[in-house]
């Protein structure tokens, strides 16, 4: 009977055949221990010389790291085994003997591992991280569908910038200029006017020449947008969504969290609602912590975000930033035009901003003023203005960077491990 490693719990006492790769091997006299992986998990195959044919014994001896094979054996429970099960091998069929596999159990430098990312993915740590990433993706779909959202896919090629910045990848769209999308938000606002509550989940590109451990050139964004929704209601959605992601990872990825050595006690504290701090209070707090260089009106950098987040065990919202440091489409706080109805959600443990969101301007005349202020005279912005002209309503939305969320939930030192093939400032290989 053919089975995967993740399925062997259903076949205790039965004989199964698993297609696998050899992750590692050790021997002790008349016993060979094969650490096998098949993409769904890991299991130890025990080869006893007295219980297999001479041919199978010799084949097992020939196996090298990352050799591929079909292995047949009897499943038995073993509480000492990481998976709780082992395989007593009865026979094996070699598919290919791998020669000189470059990533050995010894330590390798980061650049070497990045050059061999296509193979590094096979390691138990990288396997676990990508399984957790997949769980976060699944939880995202479940959360938004269960809460009445419709998934809408915005374009990747656009004729304008979502936030009016110059950090864009330029290309030619036949005889016109086009850009790789840095955000689907503007299009999601249009979709919300048609469908009420929507979200997108797709790639985004930012040509920032940044080398920090938090930045990727190509990354994935989850961007919900909600009609008839104010800023406070949006914050409630955000905190419930993030708490749900953590809950699902804790529930379904205990093996993976253990593999990467994550302190799950820190994740177990993540429950909504999250604390909130206004930008005004954050400035005062930072000054009290010795950040004498920060002044009201300045945007926060990584050290500032880390200092704020360190005082909380859970993510914290920093709200009502100055208008001048935020995007043109954000709605001012009533009676206080110098700040906007927005929030950044800062993750604990020094991981910085994982969500940025705001209530959007819904007043046509105010949006026209912003167009003039930000010199948005390009015809490619005409359609966005029209959203305020035909049935405008209060609406809010936010964007969560998938890789930053994965880095935080996994407790990783660098964002490069959160995505299968990271695109960094000086790396587009493999």
UniProtKB/TrEMBL annotation:
Its EC number is 6.1.1.22. Its main location: cytoplasm. Pfam families: tRNA-synt_2, tRNA_anti-codon. Transmembrane segments: none annotated. One of its GO terms (biological process) is asparaginyl-tRNA aminoacylation. InterPro entries: Aa-tRNA-synt_II, aa-tRNA-synth_II, aa-tRNA-synth_II/BPL/LPL, Asn-tRNA-ligase, Asp/Asn-tRNA-synth_IIb, NA-bd_OB-fold, NA-bd_OB_tRNA. One of its GO terms (cellular component) is cytoplasm. Homodimer. Belongs to the class-II aminoacyl-tRNA synthetase family. HAMAP family: Asn_tRNA_synth (MF_00534). This is Asparagine--tRNA ligase. The gene is asnC.
């Amino acid at each position: 009977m053919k089975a995967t490693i993740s399925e062997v719990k259903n076949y205790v006492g039965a004989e199964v055949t698993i297609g696998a790769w050899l992750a590692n091997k050790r021997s002790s006299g008349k016993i060979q221990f094969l650490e096998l992986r098949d993409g769904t998990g890991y299991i130890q195959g025990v080869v006893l010389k007295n219980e297999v044919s001479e041919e199978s014994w010799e084949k097992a001896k020939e196996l090298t790291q990352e050799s591929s094979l079909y292995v047949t054996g009897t499943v038995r429970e073993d509480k000492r085994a990481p998976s709780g099960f082992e395989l007593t091998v009865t026979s094996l069929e070699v598919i290919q003997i791998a020669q000189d596999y470059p990533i050995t159990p010894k330590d390798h430098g980061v650049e070497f591992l990045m050059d061999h990312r296509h193979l590094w993915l096979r390691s138990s740590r990288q396997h676990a991280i990508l399984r957790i990433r997949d769980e976060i993706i699944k939880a995202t779909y479940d959360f938004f569908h269960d809460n009445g959202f419709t998934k809408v896919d915005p374009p990747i090629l656009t004729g304008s910038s979502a936030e009016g910045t110059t950090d864009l990848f330029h290309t030619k769209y036949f005889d016109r200029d086009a850009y790789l999308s840095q955000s689907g938000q503007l299009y999601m606002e249009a979709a919300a006017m048609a469908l009420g509550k929507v979200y997108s989940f797709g790639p985004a590109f930012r040509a920032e020449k940044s080398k920090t451990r938090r930045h990727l050139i190509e990354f994935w964004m989850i961007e919900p947008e909600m009609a008839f929704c104010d800023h406070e209601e949006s914050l409630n959605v955000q905190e419930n969504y993030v708490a749900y992601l953590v809950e699902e990872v804790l529930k379904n990825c205990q093996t993976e969290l253990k593999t990467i050595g994550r302190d799950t006690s820190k994740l177990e504290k993540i429950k909504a609602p999250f604390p909130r701090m206004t930008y005004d209070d954050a400035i005062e707090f930072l000054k009290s912590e010795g950040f004498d260089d920060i002044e009201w009106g300045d945007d926060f950098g990584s050290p500032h975000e880390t200092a704020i987040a360190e005082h909380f065990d859970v993510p914290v919202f920093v709200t009502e930033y100055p208008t001048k440091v935020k995007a043109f489409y954000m709605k001012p706080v009533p009676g206080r035009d110098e700040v906007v109805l927005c929030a950044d959600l800062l993750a604990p443990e020094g991981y910085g901003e994982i969500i940025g969101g705001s209530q959007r301007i819904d007043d046509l005349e105010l949006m026209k003023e912003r167009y003039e202020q930000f010199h948005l005279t390009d015809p490619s912005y005409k359609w966005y203005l029209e959203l305020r002209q035909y049935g405008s309503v209060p609406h809010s939305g936010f964007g969560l960077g998938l890789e930053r969320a994965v880095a935080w939930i996994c407790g990783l030192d660098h964002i490069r491990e959160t995505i299968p093939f990271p695109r960094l400032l000086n790396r587009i290989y493999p």
